[in-house]
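FAQ: What does a multi-protein file look like?

Like this. Sequence, then tokens, then the next protein.
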Amino acid sequence: MPKRKVITICGVLGSGKSTAAKRVAEALGYSHFSGGDFMRAMAAERGISLADFSVLAETDPEIDKEIDRRQKDFMNTNNEFVIDSRLGWFWAPDSFKVFLTLDLDTAASRVFADIENKARGGEMQGTPETFEDVKARLAERFESERKRYYGYYVIENHFDPKHFDLVIDTKANDAQAVEKLILEGYDKWLMAQ
């Protein structure tokens, strides 16, 4: 399969995928996008908040399908970009596919700290009051996504390392190290064409 100059970054909440995508895009001079950009655009088109749109999406499978269609269309018609997206690897199989892994406790700690700092207020429904609440919601979100992606696309586990060209543990690697590992992996991947 021919390769394009596209990097897709997937990872659990709290793994630093947005930070990694922005850093790598800047280092390469590529554009940066997020799977959430498509959701935010659709919420704006409807004149509702992202939080309200997320609630609506949970009960209307057509919203997920429309977000996925827009993302797939964009990814199939553009080049030289980095995107952080749950299913980016699926929509762009000719991309360099990166997965950022992180254990549930560390992910929950990071997300909880972000919520406390009001950095992630709109990303989860309601505001979890404790670390255990956040941990439970992360586990629920993964299971909800797993069921939806299997139902829509017969993907058993969208976080399975077999889908990716590079897997990085972000507990063991800070943002600078993650950026370096992705850039090195991408160079090798391109050279192997």
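And here is the next protein:
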Amino acid sequence: MNMHNLRQYTELEEIAGQLFVIKNIHNAGYNELVEITEENGTVRIGVTLEVGEGYAVVQVLGGTTGLSLKNCKIRFKGKPLEIGVSSDMLGRIFDGLGNPIDGMPKVVPEEIMNVNGTAMNPTARAYPENIIETGISTIDVMNTLVRGQKLPFFSGSGLPHDMIAAQIVRQARVKEEEFCIVFAGMGIKYDTARFFIKSFEETGVLDNVIMFLSLADSPSLTRLMTPRFALTAAEFLAFRKDMHVLVVLTDMSNYCEALRELSTMRGEIPARKGYPGYLYSDLASIYERAGRIKDKKGSITQIPILTMPNDDITHPVPDLTGYITEGQIVVDRELHARGIYPPISVLPSLSRLMKDNIGKGKTREDHPGLASQLFASYARTRDIKSIASIIGEEELSDLDHLYLKFGEEFETKFVNQGYNERRTLEESLELGWDIISILPEEELIRISQQQIKQRYRYKK
């Protein structure tokens, strides 16, 4: 232990919100753990946010209420914030800082890990491969989720992204491998937290889930630390215990609001819409903790969920998220208004790693062609609908009417499925063939003739 760890300071220079400034100290480290002991013996934990020669800005977990400028003991621990991790965390519920909130005792750690993680060496990364079945047709067939991928959900206020997240947690499977889920809720309301807990308990999947919940009334730093605690637990399970881990992070917009709040407190010059200029690199420090490592069996796959203010996909949070991640799933307000669940809009959604992980030897031989044909045909349906709104449906050709019928069936049967309905990939592909067979054979230009002969069933 360094000698300066034994040094203790008793005077603060300034307190502002959740931050305090301390001067005339040894040179502290960035992200260093700080212990604050009050006169009455209460101990609080803080983290250095900014350091310089002889001073530090510290954010206190839980806030600075009741802290005095004098007569409190400040000790710099000489190490970052850490968490004790163990396989026994599965089936447990923790707050945003890794403390149990399920009424059970603390977990006995197998290992102590730095919550900030260690960067994956790019040369040690393995390319994401093999799919995770979510049981949702629009994802499994059209925007396949791959182990080691980062695939965010772009949603909006009032849309059922929480239900979709809960459904994926309940239904997700990988073939013949150890699989678990780490769920992190940031700034979520109490009733939303209860919904997730109840949903996982009732369906019996909680035993295979670790939950970290930072509620809406928690301090902004807790919200910022929650995904880091969750991902540290995921890294332990993936790379020490050889498990495939799916990490669901909701809501990343709340995380970014906490980052903006903290930046304002520190008096930093704002960038786009008041967010700090380092929003991109901060988001990357979370998203890039997904992936696979060569010679390791396990993997970390991320589904970050974010709500776009005013459904604006060009807002800084979805915009920067899209630069870092490998695609996006877009939740659509119009489909939701028509009672279609899950209201996933297929056309703007994308999985960039899908093409290398479907087809012969991966999923099913007909998967790439069918997915491409469904996408192209649905895009044409939307164009025909636009024309029909101008000239009227009676002016459309017979083929156009078939396309409209296909579009209706695609939305009401393929996109639409029940909250408790889990479709296997095989069932989703067969359903896709049923619906694409509404169109004449000569329209199926993206599917091989061999596959058409085998699976096509034209419906008049």
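Q: Is there any per-entry metadata?
A: Some entries carry free-text notes. For the entry above: The two ends are 79 Å apart (CA to CA).
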